[in-house]
Amino acid sequence: MSTIKTRDAWEAMAASLSINGQAFINGQYCDAVSGETFASISPLDGKVLAQVASCDQADVDLAVQVARKSFESGVWRDAAPTRRKKVLLRFAELILEHKEELALLETLDMGKPINHSLKGDVPATARAMSWTAEAIDKVYDELAPTPANQIGMVTREPIGVVGAIVPWNFPLIMASWKLAPALATGNSVILKPSEKSPLTAIRLAALAKEAGIPDGVFNVLPGYGHTAGKALALHMDVDCLVFTGSTGIAKQLMIYAGESNMKRVWLEAGGKSPNIVFADAPDLDRAAAEAASAIAYNQGEVCTAGTRLLVEDSIKDVFVAKVVEALKKWQPGHPLDPKTTCGAIVDKAQLERIIHYIEAGKNEGADLATGGHQVMQETGGCFVQPTVFNNVHNKMTIAAEEIFGPVLSVIPFTSVEEAIAIANDSIYGLAAGVWTADINKAHKTAKALRAGSVWINHYDGGDMTAPFGGFKQSGNGRDKSLHAFDKYTELKATWIELY
Ligand code: NAD
To answer: What pLDDT score was predicted for residue 2?
Structure first.
C-alpha cells in the first residue's frame, strides 16, 4: 500500500533530486552546439532549478539529420507493430515506475499541485502510451472495391520526421498525446518542450531509450523562446509538425510551413469555453462544484477551462453564490503540500498577464464576486486567487480573450437560443458544457455548439478513446483515439492489375 508523502518528504526529495537540463539527440544527452543555456526557474519560490540547453538552428539541423537517418534505416519504421507495441508498453511502465520523480519535476517546474501531478498527469501520460501501444497492432489497412482483375490497396505509411512543439500547462500529457501516436505509427520524432517547463520532457528521453526506442527515433530539443521551434517549423526536412499551444503561434506555424516545404501542420490551440447552466440542471450543487473546478483546476491554465459560465438569469444569483462557495476549496497553497488544490502560476509573466486581465474586468464594469488578488508573495512564488466576475458581457475583454488563469466570467442569458448565440460568439471552438435535465434541450444545444468536445451534465469528461481537438481557431486535427493516427501517416493507394 502506498503512503501519502508529506510536504516535508517531497521537499526532502526535491533537495536531493538531480536535474538534467541537456538536449537529447541520437540517444545521448548533450549540450546545445552553442554551449548556451537558460535558467529553468521554479514558480514555487523563484529559485533556479537547472540550466537548460538553449537549442537553436544548429541543434535542430543535427536532430533532424539523425531523425531522418533513423527513419530511413527502417530500424523503427519497419519494425512489426507488435514490436513497437511492446516497446511503448515498456515505456508506459517505466513512466509509472518513475512516477514520483516525474510528478515532482512537473510540480517544481510548472507549479501544479503535487497530488495532481502524481495522480493525474503522470498516470495519464502512461495511459496515453499504453492505450496507443495496445491499439497499434489492431488497425488494419483497406482494400478498395474493385473488379476481379484488380486489387486496390489503401495503406497507411509513417510520414517521416515529426516535429512536436508542446506548451507548458500539461508538459507530460501534451507531449504524450503527440509522442504516442507518432512513435506507434513508426515515425522519428523531435520533441520541443516549452521553455517554461522543459524538465520532464528531458527526463522522458532516457526512459524512452531504456524502453528500447532506438537512437535517433526520439530526440528532445529544449530551447528558449521561439528559436528552436521556429527552426523546426521552417526546416525543409521535417515532414510533419504537430503543435499544442496558443492560437497566435499556431497561425505562425502555418505560415512557416507555407514558406518552407509544405510540411503537414496539425494544431491544438486556444479556447474560451462556454459552460452553460440552464435553470433545470439536474443538480445545481454539482454544477457549481464543477464550474469551480473547471476554472481553478491547474490554476485555470487549461485550454478547455470553463472560462465563460453562461447561467440562466432566473438562477444566476443563487448559482453564483454556490460557485463562490465551492471555490473556497480551491484557494492557492504550496504545490508540494499534498492537500493543495490550486498551485502556482507557471511564471511571473503569466501571473502579470492574469493580473492585467483582472484589472481589465474591473475597468470594463464587471462585478468582482470573489478573488482578484495575487497572494503568498512571501514565498517568492507566483500565486493568484481564483477570481469570479459576475454580470459580464460577452464582448468584454475578459470574456473574449483567453486569459489562461483562474478568472471566471459569469454571463447571464434568458433563452436557449441566446445561450447558443453567446456560446458560439467566440473565435475559439474547443469545448463546451451543458447542464439541463431536459434531454431534448441537451441534445439540441450540444448539436448547435461549434466545439470539438461537448460535455452534458458534467465538465471535462472523456478518455483516450475519444478524439480531442477544436473547431474554428482552436485548431485542426485531433489528438487521442484512433483518429490521432491520421496525423502521423500518409495514405497510399497502390493499384494492381492482374493478368
Ligand atoms: P505558446 O503558443 O506560447 O507556446 C507553445 C510552444 O510553442 C512552446 O513550446 C513555445 O516555445 C513554442 N513557440 C513559441 N513561439 C514559437 C515560434 N515562433 N515558432 C515555433 N514554436 C514557437 O503557448 P503556451 O503559452 O506554451 O501554452 C498555452 C496555450 O496552449 C494556450 O493558448 C492554450 O489554450 C493552449 N493549449 C491548447 C491545448 C489544446 O489541446 N487545444 C492544450 C493545452 C494548451
So the answer is: 61
